[in-house]
Design goal:
40% helix, 4-stranded mixed beta sheet, binds 5-S-methyl-1-O-phosphono-5-thio-D-ribulose, single chain, 7-stranded mixed beta sheet, 365 residues
Amino acid sequence: MKIDGIPYRSVWVDREDGWSVRIFDQTKLPWTLDILRLTDEEEVAHAIRSMQVRGAPLIGAVAAHGVALALRRDASTANLDRVVEMLGRTRPTAINLRWALARMRAALHNLAPSDRLAAARAEAAAICDDDVETCRRIGEHGLPLIRDAAARKPPGGRVNVLTHCNAGWIATVDYGTALSPIYQAHDAGIPVHVWVDETRPRNQGAALTAWELGRHGVPHTVIADNAGGHLMQHGQVDLCIVGTDRVTRTGDVANKIGTYLKALAAKDNGVPFWVALPHSTLDMEVGDGVAGIPIEERAAEEVTELTGRTADGRMETVRVVAEGSAAANPAFDVTPARLVTGLITERGQTEASEGGLRALYPEKA
Ligand code: MRU
């Protein structure tokens, strides 16, 4: 994707030194476009934990680069196993993190230590390239949903898509998952407008999705998280498309907290609820998502405080909860497959069911 006309990915190897890893500091967006330089695995772990990088596919890709950084100093098997284990503990819900680390370990484990660093860099680069192509194809396979909705509109009508959290290019290496069909529709001249859930407590919708869509010129409106049901009741949402951090073999979907409530409202109002995912988000080892997917519990301060920009351009954090009140912060929830209209993958659309997933990914069955 382009920022001010310059093409970027969300993670890349520094072009001058050829080894350090560059990311955007997403905790500063949309106010400041800060590019960070990561030089070892501890900095990578911190970037993932603190959500300087976030989004299921992107944390996997950055963790893969973290393995390569760790092997610069010590390419022993013990260090490979240590860094894979350490990075795997940074965030629990998105399976892409463990998928990318397992792929790195499998590619490197049987090599001689002297061959590992070059192989690690190549494998991390391959994971990134794979993600870019995967997300581009998700866009191609999701585009007909928006095109068909547009065909049902009266002349001049626009397709209203509701999305939750940020599943755009800044959550992946490029293109995004849920936003990829939207970008493709916009680029194809289909009039599309996006309702952007603000996505409290961390406001990924208000801060990141709105920023991305705005940079690309996609019409959008930020709404309070509680507004979606009302808009659906009044016919103002044609379809929902969200991303996901883990899809079980039965089609249950973990995504940012609040997704489940949107799916319930969509079901009640007959609004199609689609979930976009790459192959790296599938977890065939878990059946029941509510019972089997670990849900990250984040700091209470993310609920009790809000960070924004003051009128004179400073970033400031203020408390918004009465002193003395406790706050809980489950960061994800699980939408059962029965509420999901369908899945959009790089291999096409399928139903959110064991049969649908097995048909599309026979090698994973
Ligand atoms: O906590 P985050 O911001 O990492 O959560 C991200 C989401 O929930 C996204 O919707 C999901 O990772 C899909 S990203 C393509």
